[in-house]
Specification:
This protein is an alpha+beta fold. 32% of the residues lie in helices and 29% in strands. Bound molecules: calcium ion.
Length: 250
């Protein structure tokens, strides 16, 4: 299995989809340098910290096997900071499995906490284009609900990064997939067109057009194979076939 990463985000933002508390300096999570995106929370849920634009360049046709997200984070004291929500972003849409650990406390010193794995697709299906998309990424929301030590808990995030695991595609697999897709698409389009003609025209004209198109397809396929074979391999005029059959029957 191949992989690309870990890569860091090119774009960070505060996202208001969940929570009420705004992240300070989201851009500080682009590199690991002990400079943080921070949040002072007092019994509240944070906004999403949104990471996208990772710059992946997975080869076209590869099979995506897993996505591993790592968040270097801490709560610098005797506080109660936990995850609220951790989800993937596919094509700019927050979706898939909920990966938040709502039980474990955040570490008290910088630690990369892992979400997903080399075999975890976060409940989604992925193409290489989905991963390479500038709007691929993830979101994280934290909370300090239940704080026991003071008026506020600090949520610190130093760095976020993603590694994507994949199996490189082969020429054979890409050819077969394109063939099957073109076949299925032509079949579905002809079916839908005949269906639409059914509703607009009479039932008799519809049934005749459907049966004729079906029979012409099957006959052209069989004749193109069997006729050429007999003519070129035996080179016998049609009239002699009947005579030879009669001789053979004697
Ligand atoms: Ca940092």
């Amino acid at each position: 299995m191949s992989y690309e990463g870990p890569l860091s985000p090119g774009t960070m933002a505060d996202d208001v989809t969940v929570g009420t508390k705004v992240w300070t300096n989201p851009d500080n999570t682009k590199i690991s340098d002990n400079v943080y995106a921070r949040l002072y929370a007092t019994g509240v849920v944070s906004h999403y910290l949104k990471a996208t634009n990772f710059g992946f360049a997975i080869p076209t046709g590869a099979i995506i096997n897993g996505i591993k997200v790592e968040v270097e984070k801490k709560q610098p004291g005797n506080e109660v900071a936990k995850d609220n929500s951790v989800k993937i972003i596919k094509g700019g849409v927050i979706s898939g499995d909920e990966k938040a650990d709502t039980v474990t406390q955040w570490p008290i010193s910088d630690t990369y906490v892992i979400y997903g794995s080399s075999t975890d697709l976060w409940g989604e299906t992925w193409t290489t284009e989905d991963i390479n998309n500038v709007n691929f990424g993830f979101v994280l929301s934290g909370t300090n609900v239940g704080s026991v030590s003071g008026p506020a808990a600090d949520l610190y995030i130093d760095h976020v990064r993603i590694t994507v695991y994949y199996t490189a595609g082969t020429t054979t697999s890409s050819t077969s997939s394109s063939t099957s897709s073109s076949t299925s698409s032509s079949t579905s389009s002809s079916t839908s067109s005949s269906t639409s003609s059914t509703s607009s025209s009479t039932s008799s004209s519809t049934s005749s057009s459907t049966s004729s198109s079906t029979s012409s397809t099957s006959s052209s396929t069989s004749s193109s194979t069997s006729t050429i074979f007999y003519q070129e391999d035996f080179n016998i005029p049609y009239g002699e076939i009947d005579i030879l059959d009669r001789i053979g029957n004697r």
